[in-house]
Give the backbone structure.
Amino acid sequence: MSDRTRGRGERGDARAVRERVREFALELPGAYEDFPWGDSVVKVNRKIFVFLRPDGSDDDHPPTVTVKLTDPGAHAHAMSAPGAVPTGYGLGRAGWVTIPLGEPEAPDAELLRDWVEESYRTIAPKRLVTELDARTTG
């Protein structure tokens, strides 16, 4: 397990981690929030690149982040997170992974942001990926 998936730290506050991930996703070029099933999703070009399950008002349903990871290494790393599962409704077969937040050894917000960016790059049009690259190099 990576050094960014150890200890509780901020991971103990799943709501704060979820909010940091949400804010990061919304900063990506062309990204916007939508609520198609009552849960928060972030889209680009009308396509979802991250699902953000509610803040988890009870312990039986913790907040989760769901991303599409096509890189085999990133996918395997995400699947190694405690409680991570292939996403339901057949999405898991396409590389979608659902990661619960707030668990001991759960990924921190920084690692989750990396995965959100990878998901974004998979879904976003090339022109927006180019815009993102220009932001990071410029």
About this structure: Residues 91 and 97 are 8 Å apart (CA to CA). Residues 1-11 have pLDDT under 50 and may be disordered.
